[in-house]
Amino acid sequence: MQRNYSLLLKQLHQLGAERPGELPELVQWLQFLEHATNNCADLALDTAQSERNKDYLASEIQDLSSRIEETQRIAGLGDWSFDRRLGQGKWSRECYRIFGLSPSAPMPTYKELSRQVHRDDRLYVKDRVEAALHDARKFEIEFRYHLPDGDIRWVRALGQPIKNAKGQVCRLFGTVMDVNSRKLIEVRQAMEHTVARLLAECDSPVEVIPEIIETICSTFGWLCGALWMPDKKASVLRRAATWSQPGSSIEQFFHNTPDHIPLPASGALSSRTLRVARADWFPDASRGEHFERATQAAATGLHGCLAFPLQAAGEIVGIMEFFGPQPQEADRETLQSAHFIGRHIGQFFQRKQVEQALRESEAHFRALVEQASDSFYVHNMQGKFIDVNQQGCEGLGYTRAELLAMSAQDVDLDLTSRELKKLTGKVAAGTPIARESRYRRKDGSTFPVEIRMGPIDINGHQHLLSLVRDVTERKEMQDHIQHLAYHDSLTNLPNRAMFNRHLSHAIDQSARHGRSLAVLFIDLDRFKYVNDTLGHDAGDRLLQEMSRRLAKALHSDLVARLGGDEFVVLLEDIDDSEHVSLVAHKILSALVEEFPLNGQLIHITASIGVSIFPDDGKDEFALMKHADIAMYRAKDRGKNNFQFYSAYMSQHAAKMLALESSLRRALEREELVLYYQGKVETRTGRITGVESLVRWQHPELGLLCPDQFIPLAEETGLIVPLSKWVLRQACMQICAWQRENLPPLTVAVNLSARQFTEDYLLEDTAQTLRELGMDPTLLELEITESMMMHNPERTIQILQGLKAMGIRIAIDDFGIGYSSLSHLRQFPIDIIKIDRSFIQDVPGDPADEAITEAIIAMGKSLKITVVAEGVEKIEQLQFLSDRSCEEIQGYFFSRPLPAEEFTKLLWKNLAPVAIVKKRPVAKQ
Q: Catalytic activity, per the record (predicted)?
């Protein structure tokens, strides 16, 4: 096995050396394979000494085999072996792809493979293989292979013979690699080189044209070709030379074609090419409605057709046309080769004298450079400009004479003498340079540029050629996109994503230096009244004005808009609560000032909740939540005031203790009840599942919603038994609906952060499902992004355990946390639920629209079901439906209902109607 891997690693090293820029991951995997191979060898020696290493060795070998297979797939490289005594072979999975076979197909025999080798390569391959079998010679060969679909692929094969004890070759092993792309490039480059050589060695270009046509036909697999040259005086195209593969039918095709074509001739391929002055391609000449020789082409078996002009110094001196045996679509590489050959032959035709030809060639390439949209600069190793094109002059605002009196350091702001010396050293060593910088124009203005530098030889001295592109527009677009991603489109303030990033960084800095910071959660009072009475346009203008006032009042402190009428402020490096109080008073005073709106003077107030790090929370989630709680306390206190979270807790300690005591007895007294809200398939309106939502039927306070007691349950630890109760009751209800012969439904149950960290979560969940006899696939457990990212390694372990039972995993309130795509890919997630804060302002809010569309697209690419929460309006539903969001949840379909009422809804839903036709359900 060691020798097999060493040959494979040798092949992979060669591939990595040939394409280092294209295969960065492959290089890393090569290092792993070498390390793993050495480990396996060491383990093999240790196995004889210790029986306990067997399992580890097997695991290491299996992991190595998986890595090798993945590496082979990336590199397009397969390995094979052939047992001469048994006459049987083996090869890896990648070999099937290389030879165009299905992985389930049996491995073909050597004879079957030989029959598919191109006839021109068959004898060569046979000789090398037989030499390996009989003379134990290693071989490294490249050959063409006919794929089952008729295409031809270049394959590179390495073979290594193995001898037995008698010195006879008993086995061959080696690798095969798909080198089709490289060989096609090499073949075409060789063809272009051959054409150039034939022209350079001939006295009369016309005499060598048949050989050139044959070379081109052999390269592209065409059957015949011809050269037509214009006779301007006679206004005709004359056939100057032809070549075709032996065959009377093809020769007859040319015989039936007139040797001259009057101009203009709309049905003649060559004359049309002359008219449009560029390559012209017929995918199938035998079916060309405007091709006058279509009938003759069809009778001869000619289909694909290409014609291209021979040009020099802007003048067309000839037309070359070629015909192939099969219909063929135009491809970029062929057209590029045709362009190159046409230019090369055309220039050669125009050379009557060497000196004249040199002048024409220089003028031709100068024209190309001068017409380029990029700037070209040539300077010596000291930086002095030697040449520049017109765009280079215009881009900097200098005349050509002015620039040639300057150096590169005069315009390149980042090009110091030391940097120039470093760059010239790299270029002299053959390393191409790509860099970004800023250029200064004659008027003093600057602009960003992208520079590619390479060597150029002038009169035997090495110089530097710089291709410079103005990337101002691209940079502005990147900045604009970056701004949209992290700013609110209405107010231009930072959005939630940017605030979370800054808050997380500020917490780290404050923790490191022992400082405090404050989060101020601001909610405008009675803003909904402004929207309802004056309209949303007026509401938007009011939000913009409030944003300006906040930014002006706070100066350097970070202000962000979270959505709707909610704002948040970050105060860093605070000394004491008095400083925070002064800022809060300043905000309230700035906001309350009157504002003329639609002919009325509006006075808007705000409620502010304050949380302090580290007293009120040690992470952004806790600080935001506690500031939010404090804000609601400020509203309870009559609005237009601020409350500290700590003050709120101390003032209501007695009430919280009483509520905690009641909550502890709520489970015993069966005061908790479950409500259910349906998840609905957007396309059909069918209820696919439900989310269980707990309510507390308090004997004195009445029916309490989760936000009135869940925070308390989380703080006191009661959330764990409460969550277990919710899970059991929700599963019992699903089983009850099944017994009523209702269609199977999934039930979503929220996991609390504390429950998620419990060591017995997996065991308790499995026991509950077993006791109730419920199908685990009908259970969905919802977690938040913050819970996932708290300890990613443990999260993966827990989620994998739940998935192993068949339970589905959903991320709730997706988009407001701080998970990354790299982490998201690692978690076994089935569902993501878009947070309602992104849905409430769509359509209409470009930022929220973009985020929602991005989440839906991301879900599709990762094959994760996307559910939109908080859908309340037909416009929201239509927006989501147009973007193929699979499921929705919200008041538009149904508010949360008790089990009895939801059962009735389920029976009605058995005959669904597309929900986009429904009217919204009023909130209750």
A: 3',3'-c-di-GMP + H2O = 5'-phosphoguanylyl(3'->5')guanosine + H(+)
